[in-house]
Specification:
Chain A is mostly helical and 254 residues long. Helices cover 84% and strands 0% of the residues of chain A. The longest helix of chain A has 38 residues. With 273 residues, chain B is an alpha/beta fold. The chains are: A mainly alpha (254), B alpha/beta (273), C mainly alpha (251).
C-alpha cells in the first residue's frame, strides 16, 4: 500500500527536475562558451525571433502539412492493417516477426529508395514519415486486438450483436487503450521520419532550417529550432499520454 | 488477560494485543484498522486453523507472525523470543500465490533456502531429494515450474518450506487455487507432514470444511478489523485423514463455524465498495 | 518450424522473387531499383575487394559501443530510479515524451563538447538506446512478484543477493525487451548520424553512393545493413524464445 503523493508535489518535483536540467544547460553553455552552446536565455530569444519571422512560418507550415498527411497515413493505415492482422490469427503470426524486424531496421538507409520513387518534395517526406509511424501503430493495434479477452467476444455473441455492433461496443472499447499507446509511439516516430526527410533532401521545412544552420554553424538557430521542436513534440506527446493513461486506468483490473 | 484465543500449556507462539492499522492511501482518507487486537497462544505441535470473511486481516495476522510485517501495537513471541518485523529462524511460510521461481528448476527451487542458509552441498542434496520424494515430485526434479500443474507447483513451494525443517509452518490459503479433489488429497499430505515433523501449523483458509477436517482447533475471525469471535476444538485423533468428512461430528463442526461466521460474512460483503 | 514460419519464409522469398522478375523484365528503371541478385553480386564484390571494410568496422564498433553503454547504463539507472519513487514520479513525464524529441540535431553540439571523433556518434546511439532500457528495467522491477520478495525476506537475504538472485532473474523477460530495443536503437542512432552528419561509416557510404548515382553500391550497402540487423535480431529472438519457453511464457 503506497501512499499517493499530493498533486502539487508530483508536478512540483517534475518542475524542479526541469529547472535542474535548465541550470545544467546554462552551466554547460558557460563551460563550452556561448558560440559552442547557446545558453537558455539566448536560445529563448532566438526562438522568439524565429516564431515572429515570416520565413520560419513558411517552413513550419510546410513541416506541419507533411506531418499531418504522414500521421493520417500512418494512423489509419496502421489501424486498418493491425486490426486485420489481429483478427486473422494466422496472418498475424506470419506478419508480426516481419513487422518487428522492420521496426528494428534503421529506416534512414531506405530513404534514397523513397527519393528515387517519389522524387524530391512533399510526397517523399510524407512517405518517409508514414513508413516510420505505420509500423509501431500496426504492431500495437495487432496486439491490442489479439489480446481482447475471449470472454468479451463470447458475451457479444451470446447477446447476438451484429458484427458492426460488436465492433463498436466491444472490440473497439476493449482494444482502445493499447491502440492509443500505439498512436502515441507512432506520432513520435512519424515526426522523426518527416524531420529526417527534410534534413536529407528538401529545401523547405524545419528539418531544412536545422540542416542549413548546421551547415552554417549557426548555433543559436540550431538550439532555437531544436528547442521549439522539443516543446512541440513534448506537448503533443503529453496530451496523448494523458488520454492514454486515463483509458488504461479505466480498463485496469484489480 | 485471557481472551478467547489464549490457552494454558506450553505455548510455542504467543500473540498479545496484536493490532495493525494501515496509513491512509490518499490524503483526507481515514487510516484502515485491519486487525485486532488479537490474543492467541499456539501450543507446540498444534494444528490451528483460521477462518474468517474476506478482507478480515487473516493474511495480515500471518505476515505479522512470520515477521514479514510489524504490528502497529502488541507483541509476538516465538519460542520465547520477541518477533518484530524480521523473520525469525524456524518459521516457514507457504503462500496462496504461486511462489515458485520460474527461472529455477524444481530441484533448484527446493534447494534455494538451503543454499542461502549455507548448508553444504551433500546435505542439501540429501534433504532436497528426501523432500521431493515426500511430496511425490521425484520424477520432476529437472522440470521447470511452467511445465507443472498448479497443484504440483504448490507442492514445490511446500517442499521448499519443508526442507528447512521449520518448527512453525504458516500456510496462507495454500490450496485456494486448486480444485476440490486435489485439495482433499493435499490436505491428507499436509496432515502426514504435520504428524511426521511434529511442527506447529497455522493454516488460513476460506474453506470451512478444510478447516474442520484438518485442524485441532479453529479460530473464527470477525469482519474488519479482524478479531477472534469463536474458538472451536475439533477433538480429532492425531492420525486422522480426509475420510473424517463422513463423520457426524464433521457436519456439526462445519455448521458451528458457519453459524459464527454468517453474520460477519454479510458485513464483509456489505463493506465491499 | 510452425506453419506460420513456413508461410513467412515463403512470403519473403516470394517478395524477393517478384522484385527480381519485375526489375529483370525492365518494368522498373534500373536507376530506381536493381534486381536482388545484382544487389547480392555487388555486395559480394564490395566485400571481396575489402574497400568497405573500414566503414563496416567503424559502424559496427560504434553500434557495439553504443549498445553496451545504453544497455548497461540503462539497467543501472533503472535500478537507481526504481529505488527512489519520488524521483521516478518526477521523471515519468520526461521519460514518456523522451522519444518525441529528435536528438541527432544536437550532433554539432556534441562535436563541440566531445571533439571530432566517434564519440559524438556513440553518444547519440547511447541517447537513443538508454531510455528504452531504463523503461524496460523499471517495468521489469515493477513486475517482480511480491511473494518472491517475501520468500527472499524469509531466507533473510541481503539487498545485493535479493537484486542478483531474485529481482534480476524475475525481471529478465522485460530486461530482454529492453536489450532488443537497445540494439535496434543503437543501430538506428549510429547509422542515422552517419547518414546525415558524418564523413565515415556505412550510413555515410550509402548517402555518398546515392549522391554519386552509384545505385548498385548503394543497394549493396543497404542489403548489408538489412542482413546484419536482421541476423542480430534473429539471434536475440532465439535466445529470448528459449528463455520464455522455459518459463511457460512463449507465444
Amino acid at each position: 500500500m503506497t501512499q499517493r503523493a499530493p498533486a502539487w508535489q508530483r508536478y512540483g518535483d517534475s518542475l524542479a527536475l526541469l529547472a535542474g536540467l535548465v541550470v545544467l544547460w546554462w552551466l554547460l553553455s558557460r563551460w563550452a562558451g556561448e558560440e559552442a552552446l547557446t545558453g537558455p536565455a539566448e536560445t529563448l530569444a532566438r526562438a522568439r525571433e524565429l516564431l515572429q519571422s515570416r520565413r520560419f512560418h513558411g517552413h513550419a507550415t510546410e513541416s506541419l502539412t507533411a506531418l499531418g498527411y504522414a500521421l493520417l497515413l500512418a494512423a489509419l493505415g496502421g489501424l486498418g492493417l493491425g486490426t486485420w492482422l489481429g483478427v486473422r490469427r494466422l496472418a498475424g503470426q506470419v506478419a508480426e516477426p516481419i513487422l518487428v524486424a522492420l521496426y528494428a531496421l534503421p529506416k534512414i538507409t531506405l530513404y534514397p529508395v523513397i527519393l528515387l520513387i517519389f522524387g524530391l518534395g512533399l510526397p517523399a517526406k510524407v512517405a518517409f514519415g508514414a513508413i516510420h509511424g505505420v509500423i509501431p501503430v500496426t504492431i500495437f493495434t495487432l496486439n491490442a486486438v489479439r489480446t481482447i479477452r475471449p470472454v468479451y467476444l463470447k458475451v457479444a455473441r451470446s447477446l447476438r450483436l451484429t458484427p458492426w455492433q460488436a465492433f463498436r461496443t466491444v472490440w473497439l472499447p476493449a482494444a482502445l487503450p493499447e491502440i492509443v499507446s500505439g498512436q502515441r509511439v507512432g506520432f513520435a516516430l512519424t515526426l522523426l521520419g518527416v524531420l529526417i526527410g527534410e534534413m536529407f533532401a528538401s529545401q523547405r521545412g524545419v528539418g531544412f532550417v536545422l540542416i542549413n544552420a548546421i551547415g552554417l554553424n549557426d548555433v543559436p538557430t540550431i538550439m532555437a529550432a531544436a528547442f521549439l521542436l522539443a516543446v512541440f513534440a513534448a506537448t503533443v506527446s503529453a496530451i496523448l499520454l494523458k488520454i492514454d493513461r486515463a483509458l488504461h486506468r479505466r480498463t485496469a483490473r484489480a | 488477560m485471557a481472551g478467547p484465543g489464549t490457552r494454558a500449556g506450553a505455548a510455542h507462539a504467543v500473540l498479545r494485543g496484536v493490532t495493525r492499522i494501515f496509513p491512509p492511501a490518499d490524503r483526507g482518507q481515514a487510516p484502515v484498522h485491519a486487525l485486532g487486537p488479537v490474543d492467541l497462544d499456539l501450543a507446540r505441535g498444534e494444528f490451528f486453523g483460521v477462518v474468517g470473511p474476506s478482507g478480515c486481516g487473516k493474511s495480515t495476522l500471518l505476515e505479522i507472525l512470520a515477521g514479514l510485517s510489524a504490528p502497529t501495537e502488541g507483541s509476538v513471541t516465538f519460542e520465547d523470543t520477541e518477533v518484530r518485523g524480521s523473520p525469525p529462524d524456524g518459521v516457514g511460510v507457504v503462500f496462496q500465490e504461486d511462489a515458485s521461481f520460474p527461472w529455477l528448476s524444481v530441484w533448484d527451487n527446493v534447494a534455494f533456502g538451503l543454499r542461502r542458509a549455507g548448508i553444504d552441498s551433500a546435505e542439501t542434496a540429501r534433504r532436497v531429494d528426501h523432500a521431493l520424494g515426500f511430496m511425490g515430485l521425484t520424477g520432476f526434479a529437472r522440470a521447470y515450474p511452467a511445465q507443472l500443474s498448479g497443484g504440483m507447483r504448490q507442492r514445490v513451494c511446500i517442499a521448499r518450506t519443508l526442507v528447512l525443517q521449520p518448527r512453525l509452518i504458516l500456510l496462507d490459503e495454500p490450496f485456494g487455487a486448486l480444485d476440490q479433489q486435489t485439495r482433499l488429497l493435499m490436505g491428507d499430505e499436509l496432515l502426514r507432514l504435520w504428524r511426521d515433523t511434529g511442527a506447529t501449523v497455522l493454516l488460513i483458509t476460506h474453506a470451512l470444511d478444510e478447516a474442520a477436517m484438518l485442524s485441532d482447533r479453529i479460530g473464527v475471525m470477525s469482519a474488519r478489523p479482524g478479531r477472534f469471535i469463536d474458538m472451536v476444538a475439533t477433538g480429532w485423533p492425531r492420525d486422522r485423514d480426509s475420510t473424517i468428512v463422513s463423520d457426524a461430528a464433521f457436519g456439526e463442526i462445519t455448521a458451528r463455524l458457519w453459524s459464527s461466521l454468517r453474520a460477519e460474512s454479510l458485513k464483509a460483503l456489505g463493506a465491499v465498495p | 518450424m510452425t506453419r506460420a514460419g513456413w508461410i513467412r519464409i515463403a512470403i519473403v522469398l516470394g517478395a524477393i522473387a517478384a522484385l527480381e522478375v519485375v526489375t529483370q523484365a525492365g518494368l522498373v528503371s534500373r536507376h530506381t531499383i536493381i534486381p536482388p541478385t545484382a544487389m547480392a553480386a555487388a555486395l559480394w564484390g564490395l566485400i571481396g575487394s575489402g574497400e568497405i571494410m573500414p566503414d563496416i568496422t567503424k559502424t559496427l564498433s560504434n553500434v557495439a559501443a553504443a549498445f553496451v553503454l545504453s544497455a548497461g547504463g540503462g539497467f543501472v539507472l533503472g535500478l537507481l530510479i526504481h529505488a527512489a519513487p519520488r524521483l521516478r514520479r518526477a521523471l515519468d513525464p520526461l521519460l514518456a515524451t523522451y522519444y518525441a524529441v529528435p536528438f541527432f540535431v544536437f550532433y554539432p553540439l556534441l562535436i563541440v563538447i566531445f571533439g571530432m571523433s566517434d564519440l559524438p556518434i556513440i553518444v547519440i546511439g547511447f541517447l537513443f538506446g538508454v531510455v528504452a532500457m531504463i523503461i524496460a528495467t523499471l517495468n521489469g522491477l515493477d513486475r517482480v512478484p511480491r511473494v518472491a520478495l517475501k520468500v527472499a525476506r524469509l531466507s533473510r537475504m541481503d539487498p545485493v543477493s535479493i537484486a542478483l538472485l531474485i529481482k534480476f532473474p524475475a525481471a529478465t523477460p522485460y530486461l530482454f525487451t529492453g536489450v532488443k530495443l537497445a540494439v535496434a536503437y543503437s543501430f538506428i542512432g549510429v547509422i542515422a548520424s552517419e547518414f546525415i552528419l558524418s564523413g565515415a561509416g556505412l550510413g555515410f557510404a550509402i548517402s555518398y553512393a546515392y549522391n554519386n548515382f552509384d545505385t548498385p553500391r548503394m543497394y549493396a550497402l543497404m542489403l548489408f545493413i538489412l542482413v546484419s540487423v536482421t541476423a542480430v535480431n534473429m539471434v536475440l529472438h532465439t535466445i529470448e524464445q528459449r528463455m520464455l519457453r522455459r518459463r511457460g511464457l512463449a507465444r
